[in-house]
Amino acid sequence: MTRLLITGVSGLLGINLALEAVQNGYDVVGWTNSRTLKNTPFQQATVALENLETLPAALQNARPDAVIHCAAIANLDVAEQNPQLADLVNAQAPGVLAQTAKTMGIPFVQISTDAVFDGSKGNYSEDDTPNPRNTYAQSKLAGEESVRQAYPDSLIARVVFYGWSLNGKRSLAEFFFNNLSQGKPVNGFKDSIFSPLYVRDLADLLLEAMSKRLTGTYHFFSKESLSKYDFGVALARRFELDENLIEAMQTSQGNLLTKRSLNLSINTAKLQNALGHDLPGIAEGVERLFDDYQKGLRQQLAAFLA
Ligand SMILES: NC(=O)c1ccc[n+]([C@@H]2O[C@H](COP(=O)([O-])OP(=O)(O)OC[C@H]3O[C@@H](n4cnc5c(N)ncnc54)[C@H](OP(=O)(O)O)[C@@H]3O)[C@@H](O)[C@H]2O)c1
Predict the structure, then answer these.
(1) With bands split at pLDDT 50, 70 and 90, how would you rate the model's confidence at 261?
(2) Cys-Cys with 70: which of 14, 99, 209, 213 at CB 3.0–4.6 Å?
(3) 222 lines ligand 1 (CB under 6 A)
(4) How close is the Cα of 81 to the center of ligand 1, in Å?
(5) 3 state SS of 123
(6) Number of domains in the chain
(7) What's the confidence (pLDDT) of residue 306?
(8) Which pTM was predicted?
């Protein structure tokens, strides 16, 4: 049985990846920071990534056969306001973990972001030059670089995703679902384009890529792109909520603290070729989100925090 360390297991990606990995027969150990989860079907440890000097021993003590490093300061505004912490956690810690994984001779997957691109052209492939627009994106790009240097045979997975989270508020899907199901109007940006995967589809792809020993940089995104407004509408239609509550607007009209990249449509040909199959489209992802909603995933996740 493969023992898989998932950092950031209390995050949106980490918890869904951990549940998917357990279902697929992995022995999972998860790291958290400020939150402790209850009654999870995997072991946990608390590790603060900013304490760089503690990380090699923490990783060795976990005795994993592979690592998927999900933990990060993933809130753009928090990173913008705490650049030194963002540098330690998002840029330096991944390098220390990757170096330790290399010494241990185990695969290492670094989770990165579409936000490394400036969003001026869209259809970004792995060959395009990053140009981050905010502190979060700069620190994540620096994290990619520190991993590449420490352990060139790592897999760097750039991602964007939505899904059900522990506190029910982490993802864009939950933002639309929570507001629309309470009859509250929301803004939907027409000029902010992305290529999001449903987080459980992303989890499956990461496990597949890891088992196929992919190394280098890959784009893990939906094969389709759309605006955040259109995403809200797609979700409203599938959940039979009122799409007229979504007001179309431009990001310049919104009240956003941190600068964002606009056209983050992504080219996924490299990953599709490497895996030998198509990646999920938007409707497929929203369907699985709906299916997991009906199966009670939200309640299952909330119980881990109760
Ligand atoms: N959400 C997206 O659509 C998106 C898009 C592009 C890339 N990403 C990347 O995907 C990964 C997962 O994102 P997410 O949305 O799942 O994040 P999230 O829900 O905000 O969770 C962040 C996780 O990182 C942990 N963490 C934060 N600061 C830490 C620290 N100082 N030391 C140790 N652990 C720390 C948190 O632990 P506690 O909660 O226990 O404090 C939590 O488990 C990140 O690398 C992020 O950059 C996310």
Answers:
(1) confident
(2) 14
(3) no
(4) 16
(5) coil
(6) 1
(7) 80
(8) 0.98
Maximum Cα–Cα distance across the chain: 55
Q: Among 6, 32, 158, which is best to mutate for testing ligand 1, by the most ligand atoms less than 8 A from CB?
A: 32
Q: How far apart are CA 206 and CA 245, in angstroms?
A: 35
pLDDT at 134: 95
Q: Could you identify the residue written with the tokens 């933002």?
A: 175
Q: What is the pLDDT of residue 185?
A: 98
DSSP result, 7-18: ESTTSHHHHHHH
Residue 133 CB less than 6 A away from ligand 1: no
Ligand 1, atom 8, lies closest to the CA of: 113
* 276 CB-near residues (< 8 Å, 6+ apart): none
Confirm if 38 and 99 have CB atoms less than 8 A apart: no
Q: Could you tell me which of 163, 158, 165 has the C-alpha nearest to residue 218?
A: 158
CB 105 within 8 A of CB 153: no
Q: Cα of 14 to ligand 1 centre, how many Å?
A: 8
Decide whether any atom of ligand 1 lies within 6 Å of the 160 Cβ.
yes
Contact 80, 132 (CB under 8 A): no
Using most ligand atoms within 8 A of CB, pick from 5, 6, 10, 13 the residue to mutate for ligand 1: 13
197 forms bridges with which residues in the sheet? 161
Range of the domain at 291: 3-305
User: What CATH number is attached to the domain comprising 51?
Assistant: 3.40.50.720
Tokens of 230: 């259109």
Beta bridge partners of 162: 198
CB burial class (10 A; 0-12, 13-18, 19+) of residue 137? buried
Ligand 1 centroid – CA 167 distance (Å) = 13
